[in-house]
Design brief:
Layout lengths: L19 E5 L6 H8 L3 E6 L30 H5 L4 E5 L5 H12 L3 E5 L4 H4 L6 H5 L4 E6 L14 H8 L20 H23 L3 E6 H6 L8 H5 L9 E3 L3 E3 L1 E4 L2 E4 L4 H13 L12 H9 L8 H13 L3 H10 L5 E2 L3 H5 L2 H5 L4 E3 L7 E3 L5 E2 L2 E2 L13 H10 L35 E4 L5 H10 L4 E6 L24 H5 L4 E5 L5 H13 L2 E4 L5 H5 L3 H7 L4 E6 L14 H7 L21 H23 L3 E6 H6 L3 H10 L16 E5 L6 E5 L3 H10 L14 H6 L1 H12 L4 H10 L3 E4 L3 H6 L1 H6 L3 E5 L3 E5 L4 E3 L17 H8 L4 H9 L5
């Protein structure tokens, strides 16, 4: 019996077991169906004759210590192996009448259909809009696209590089003295694929609310824009664009994050709070004296950014951390800093990760036996549910490995099988107060979320539900404000907790209450919020929420139907679980810093808190799956997700490549080994650039013609990929000379019109004026009580016939305290007054 058959229908760690997904994606989106497979769905990989082109995606597998001829060509790609476990494979020729019948029978029994690109496999096979819904009135059809299904860019070619440029991430990566830079490993389509998992499940909830099938289009460009964090809308907020500055970041002040250590590099931020925590060590090392104790380090950052008097400058704080790091190894810095409550994180490579003790202690790795090689370790599932890690029960399939059984299943299915009647659980399954379904306008209307999280991952996750109608309450405290309220961009550069758009971007459509959780009355209110909620989200250091508010047993006692989400950097159960910090610490430990930047320069890493842009996609999908399980079983659950482990899903092919062949992924500027030339080239104007990818020999000929066929392009060796790659430096110089006379926008349109993937490197101001975003209505301009009308970046996907996005502006600190306590919790005016008298209210 296949292990997949042993999953109990209501198993918490496989919350959507029983759902079926038809996966027609290639490398552009296959991570989406894979995530649904990790959550328990039966995913059928439908491949064309000869197999999916995703089976050739980089990095490619080179068997170690084995005859290459023994390696199955079906599993030649580490990318394919990483994102196709848990799937079954069938080859169907959609130009063949019999195979079309098999496909259509499968559609009748499916919940989701996923495909890549525009127009997509199905349109190319002659299926029109509405044909899938005619077969199955409740099907969720998800397309993972570069820019969306329609609009001025929708038909443009795209590459990882052009998407990084047009999405804006390239503008924020690398050093200003050189060209903007993308990640040297594939990331754009991994972001889009992960977002597609959440988008599909969001659409499934809407289908349950209005009874109709849904068509979803995910935009990879928008997914990359969301990696910009505080740089997305900055031009509209403070009148300027942020720019790339290596590992300098715009926080309370421009701060350097990268430090040379005795044996490598580390990431830390010499903020006031960090200095206060490390002060004991600084004094021991002679890097500070006792007078430093006189400073209020907890409020230092906000006071210093406002220009108020402080005892030491940010430069002095930086010098102390530089000296500390130079004296110690990465391991020493990590261990002692965590002991002191701060984090100085090592910059790991994929090789370091395999030996990282914390992951071993959490039993993170999973083994897979692939034909032609010994057992290889892949990252395990990105989350646990009720203490059980979600994830792989079946290795990636060979081409058509399950063809016979799938065809038999299709033949056994009745021609009339449809999903026109969705069977709801009996009324006795759910408590009367528990949310089950929203409405046609807002699929999560009525869902209640208590959001105790802060900074990025938790708030972005909760926002996903708030924007779709949930009542989400941010539980904040003026005594310990969310760090994003103290960091730029500030509206009109007015430094104030209610003027920080960094906070605003991640907290649209929410209510805010200001509660002092250091008081007994404050804890009582927090527990009332837990009892009120369908979903409880917290992102404190593991164990802290349990000690100060409520542990999982108490939550289950107060609210047995609750779905509880714990998210932190490293999660519980390992030697470094107590480590606090931010997404830039997790990105360093997760191995992302060495794969962004230039080979002759130190690692620059992705922009800011990179894992804060990965984890919410995965956690949102997991919560959506858990909510669907609760609807069917009446059971809540506890989800735990580490930013590190979520982030490693986006490095899975490279980790497998190291495990299988010893290859250590590293940074290589904007180049890829399978295309040439490729780069970001200067254009007319100040810091203006255009990304260009020449995918094959035919595109090279086209490109040469567009340049006017200059003499240097006529060299015979440049007619092949190998020749162009060998001459890449010289070619880049010549292309730069030509593009330097071109307007970036006009150049992009010229090249895209000729079928070449190209994109102007967009800043915040460009994104706000992007014609594709304008067409999609991506930015939502909403009225904020203090900031006025400001833009909020919208959703990375569109659901047809549903105008969705941020519903109202982010809240001011404690803006809704009285309303929530009275209207949501039902407290009387007297009870609220008593709480205020006890010091519980801000």
């Amino acid at each position: 019996m296949d292990p997949l058959d042993n999953i109990a229908p209501g198993a918490a760690a496989a919350p959507i077991a029983g759902m079926r997904v038809l996966d027609l994606t290639d490398h552009r989106g296959e991570l989406g169906p894979w995530m649904l497979a990790e959550l328990g769905a039966d995913v059928i990989k439908i491949e064309p004759p000869g197999g999916s082109p995703a089976r050739s995606a980089l990095p490619l597998r080179t068997p170690s210590g084995a005859d290459p001829d023994t390696a199955s060509p079906d599993l030649h790609s580490w990318q394919f192996c990483a994102y196709n476990s848990n799937k079954r494979s069938v080859v169907l020729d959609l130009d063949n009448t019999d195979d079309r019948q098999v496909f259509e029978r499968l559609v009748r029994s499916a919940d989701f259909v996923y495909e890549s690109g525009v127009p997509g496999t199905l349109a190319e096979a002659g299926y029109l809009t509405g044909d899938l819904r005619a077969l199955n009135g409740r099907i969720i059809h998800v397309q993972v696209t570069p820019f969306g299904l329609d609009g001025p860019r929708s038909a443009d070619p795209a590459s990882e590089l052009s998407l990084a440029a047009l999405g804006g991430s390239a503008n924020m990566q690398g050093v200003f003295e050189r060209a903007p830079v993308k990640a040297s490993i594939a990331q754009a389509w991994r972001h889009a694929g992960a977002e597609a998992a959440a988008a599909g499940l969001m659409a499934h909830a809407r289908m349950r609310a209005n009874g109709d099938g849904q068509h979803v289009a995910v935009s990879a460009q928008a997914a990359m824009t969301w990696t910009l964090l505080n740089a997305m809308e900055t031009h509209a907020i403070c009148g300027r664009d942020f720019q790339r500055s290596g590992t300098m970041v715009n926080l309370a002040a421009p701060l350097q994050m990268r430090y040379r250590t005795k044996d490598g590099w580390a990431i830390g931020v010499a903020r006031g709070v960090a200095t206060g925590r490390l002060l004991e060590w600084y004094i021991e090392q002679g890097l500070a004296d006792e007078s430093w104790h006189d400073e209020d380090w907890d409020t230092y950052d906000l006071r210093a950014s406002r220009g108020e008097p402080v005892s030491h400058t940010f430069d002095e704080l930086y010098v102390a951390m530089v000296a500390l790091c130079e004296r110690h190894t990465n391991a020493e810095l990590l261990e002692r800093s965590v002991e002191l409550g701060e984090t100085i994180a090592p910059v790991h490579t994929v090789a370091d990760l395999v030996e990282f003790e914390h992951l071993r202690a959490r039993d993170f790795w999973r083994s897979a036996e692939l034909a032609g090689t010994s057992t290889v370790e892949f990252p395990g599932g990105p989350a646990t549910i009720n203490g059980v890690r979600i994830g792989t029960r079946r290795r990636p399939p060979l081409v058509d490995e399950h063809g016979a059984e799938i065809r038999a299943e299709a033949a056994d299915a009745a021609e009339t099988t449809t999903h026109d009647d969705v069977v709801e659980p009996p009324e006795s399954v759910l408590e009367p107060s528990a949310w089950s379904v929203g409405n046609a306008e807002l699929p999560f209307a009525g869902l209640k979320v208590a959001d105790f999280s802060w900074i990025g991952v938790g708030p972005i996750t909760a926002k996903a539900f708030a924007d779709h109608g949930a009542t989400v309450v941010r539980i904040e405290s003026a005594g310990r404000i969310d760090g994003l309220r103290a960091n730029p961009p500030f509206k009109d550069d007015v430094i104030d907790v209610d003027m920080a758009h960094f906070f605003g971007t991640f907290n649209t459509s929410k209510l805010s209450i200001d509660i002092d959780l250091k008081t007994a009355a404050g804890v009582d209110i927090a527990r009332r919020m837990i009892a009120w909620a369908d979903v409880v989200v917290e992102s404190w250091t593991p164990g802290t929420f349990a000690r100060n508010v409520a542990d999982d047993d108490l939550i289950a006692e107060m609210n047995p139907n609750a779905i509880v989400v714990h998210t932190s950097l490293l999660a519980s159960g390992g030697p470094l679980s107590r480590m606090g910090g931010f997404g830039y610490h997790a990105a360093a430990i997760a191995g992302f810093y060495p794969v962004v930047g230039w080979p002759d320069l130190p690692p620059d890493g992705p922009y800011l808190a990179y894992t804060d842009t990965i984890s919410p996609r995965i956690i949102t999908a997991t919560v959506l799956a858990a909510l669907d399980r609760r609807r069917r079983t009446g059971k809540g659950c506890v989800i735990e997700a580490a930013q590190l482990e979520c982030g490693l899903q986006f490095l899975a092919p490279e980790l497998a490549d190291y495990a299988g062949s010893g290859t250590v992924a590293t940074r290589n500027g904007n180049r890829n080994p399978d295309v040439a030339p490729q780069g970001v080239y200067p254009c007319e104007g100040d810091d203006r650039w255009c990304a260009i990818t020449i995918a094959d020999d035919a595109q090279w000929k086209t490109f040469v013609g567009l340049m006017g066929a200059p003499k240097w392009t006529q060299a015979a060796e440049l007619s092949t990929l190998e020749g162009r790659f060998a001459a890449h430096d010289a070619i880049d110089d010549e292309i730069s000379a030509w593009t330097g006379t071109q307007d970036a926008v006009n150049l992009e349109r010229l090249l895209a019109g000729a079928g070449i993937a190209a994109g102007m490197v967009q800043r915040s101001s460009d994104l706000l004026a992007d014609p594709q975003y304008a067409y999609r209505g991506f930015h939502r301009w909403l009225e904020h009580p203090r900031m006025g009308t400001v833009p909020y970046s919208g959703h990375q996907y569109q659901i047809a016939d549903y105008d969705h996005g941020p519903r109202f502006a982010a809240p001011m600190l404690g803006q809704h305290t009285f309303d929530v306590l009275s209207s949501e919790l039902g407290l009387t005016d007297e009870q609220i007054a008593d709480a205020a008298a006890a010091g519980a209210l801000g």
